[in-house]
Amino acid sequence: MKDFRYLEDVATLLLDEQKCIGCGLCTEVCPHAVFEMHENKARIVDFNACMECGACVGNCPVDAVSVSPGVG
Amino acid sequence: MENKANDQGGSPFQGKGPGLSTGNVQILPAMQMSGSAFGPEDTRPLAAHDRPGYVLCRYVDHFIDTGAGPVPVVRREPDRGDRLSTIAVRCGIRRHRYMVSPGLYGIGTPDASSEVLVTANFKLTFDHLRSSLGSVSAWILVLDTRGVNVWCAAGKKTFSTRELVNRIQESFLEKVVAHKRVIVPQLGATGVSARQVEKLSGFRVVYGPVRACDIPVFLTSGRKADKAMRQVTFPLFERFVLTPVELHGALKMAGITALVLFVLSGIGPGIFSFHAAWERGLVSLAALVTGLISGAVLTPVLLPYIPSKKFAFKGIVMGGLCALLLVPMIFKGAGGMTGAAALVIFSIMVSSHLAMNFTGATPFTSPSGVEKEMKQSLPIHLAGVLVSAGLWVYSAF
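Output (structure tokens, whole complex):
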């Protein structure tokens, strides 16, 4: 979300671009447009918008994304 | 309070009877009129669906025959009872037991080609969905999330791959629709793995829009969502509607705090005075209430306009502003500078703490960030409250 920002540089989101197969599911399920497709690979474009909901993690078919949100 | 539905196709019945298999029971076709729950047989069109120990839910309009047996078709509009219950639940009243039975329902005139919309069994969610579909006809597959909404349940893994697969199988969905798709709300993605669901159930997950009101457009545009449909926002109304529950959640602690305030207020030169406990207690209560409203209502409502990203700090800013308004009213009753200072600090601490608590109700704060905030702010809140308590007692002497 552009107009609601929380603390910076705290998210535990990690994307392994080597593993990414470009399916685009992360861009589909993310509620805050953290990812964008670029040349058939996903890329984090708004790291600080991540709220660690984990939708991307569970839906990545090759486990290229990880997040450790704590209690949730 | 468990409400297991063992029926095929889900049960619209609430009751403590054993689960019944609707497939084996002869059910007469329901008439088109809607009627009241009591009265002579000819004014009760769904009387044929009566079962010992069960009451038919008001939101069921009629039953439709499917390959999996009769399926209840629900009304689109919430009735007055639904609307009143919505308000009550939004205020935190019986919020933890506001459910519908999980299973398969229909809306409009669904057939074998209609889409399957998956949702949670929190009745607020269910009512919101059925009233947001316009004139769309569809199947509604309700998952057992123990009366919790889609996103929270997904986070707690009750709106899950396993539950979705189980519900698809239990409702014999493959006998109801000719296609192999289920539409899952996007916010359910936190608990659902699309790939796993397809592997285990044969049904392909299509993620629908975030908001139910976008479903009609999503469906007519060939199950395509634009970027706006896939992003969560937090407008004023949505922030405001969360405030009664924030207050409700603070009530117990506030009550205990009020008692403590009255006791502390009575301490003075004559060891303890009930008169002072009451008079000074009321003044300190005003500070508590100010902090409550500042932190649980004003900060959430004005959230994006208050400086700082940290909610605890926003609470301090808002609390400070409210304290400015409070001081002239309580100065005399507080007995001067020291007393006023004590109450101002206390009010700001309450505001800051409740504002920080609001992070749990927002759709954009990360748990990692909240943890960081709490580690910083909790010691300050504790220290602030202790200092203000000390100053308050001191001001009586």
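Chain B has two domains: 13-232, 237-394.
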